[in-house]
Write a structure and sequence with these properties.
Low-confidence stretches: none
Shape: globular
Strand order of the largest sheet: 3-2-1-7-8-9
CATH class of the largest domain: Alpha Beta
Helix content: 25-40%
CATH architecture of the largest domain: 3-Layer(aba) Sandwich
Largest sheet: 6 strands, parallel
Order of helices and strands: EHHHHHEHEEEEHEEEH
Strand content: 15-25%
Radius of gyration: 18 Å
Structural class: alpha/beta
CATH topology of the largest domain: Rossmann fold
Number of strands: 9
Number of helices: 8
Oligomer: single chain
CATH superfamily of the largest domain: TPP-binding domain
């Protein structure tokens, strides 16, 4: 039996585009990080085994860019939805901009760059709060710490939790991703047929899963969608 749709449930699914509007460089765009460096050399299990210090240098620099960024109008508009709805934010991003904007329930599919852990699948051992991870920084058992991010070839985090949210959401808003990055993008197929589905992105390459497409900046369009949904919630309360 299918899970029942919750009319008060919203899922927000975000990608690199929303953080790019806060000044954080993307990975895959024409001027993104992967045009400057081979990801296999800085963001894979093989790279960590071969040259962990280079991996740490790369992610420490990314961490610094995250710390310098601030949540933008799209992040804030998403957080404001929690006033009227049960909201789950599912993000491919490793930054903490959703949390700093005020979102309480954020699921990081690809990990969190401000946290550290030991090994693939290891427990998150500490929130670094912006402190770089250096070679020689160990966990309690004397094992080298690494960024709590999903390297290429590693499994996505929180997959089943994300699917559970999507299966019960009456509204799904996708922001800042063209849904070309798998396996994360494939999760959106779990959204219900009758759910209202909106995709906000600068570039939209193909039609996706019954989404209504809004082409443009997240900072312009997400507040509009958020405001409309909140007005609908207020009207429902006034006219039950």
């Amino acid at each position: 039996m299918s899970a029942k749709i919750d009319p008060n449930k919203i899922v927000i699914f975000t990608g690199a585009g929303i953080s790019a509007e806060s000044g954080i460089a993307t990975y895959r765009d024409p001027e993104g990080e992967w045009q400057k460096v081979n990801p296999d050399e800085v963001a894979s299990a093989g790279a960590w085994a071969k040259n962990p210090q280079r991996v740490l240098e790369f992610f420490n620099a990314r961490m610094e860019s995250v710390l310098q960024a601030e949540p933008n109008a799209a992040h804030i508009a998403i957080a404001e939805l929690e006033t009227d709805f049960d909201v789950a934010v599912i993000t491919q991003n490793v930054d903490d901009l959703h949390e700093r904007a005020g979102s309480k329930n954020v699921i990081h599919l690809h990990g969190e760059i401000l946290s550290a852990r030991y090994g693939e699948g290891g427990a998150i051992v500490q929130n670094r709060n912006g402190e770089p991870i250096r070679w020689g920084d160990m966990d309690e058992e004397g094992r080298q710490l690494r960024p709590d991010v999903v390297f290429f070839g590693e499994d996505m985090k929180h997959r089943e939790e994300a699917i559970d949210h999507l299966k019960t959401a009456a509204r799904v808003l996708v922001v800042g991703t063209s849904l070309q990055v798998y396996p994360a993008a494939g999760l959106l197929k779990k959204a219900r047929f009758h759910a209202e589905k909106v995709l906000v992105a600068k570039e939209i390459f193909v039609k996706q899963y019954g989404f209504r497409h809004l082409r443009g900046n997240a900072t312009d369009l997400v507040p509009v969608v958020s405001s409309r949904w909140r007005k609908e919630a207020a009207a429902r309360i006034d006219d039950p």
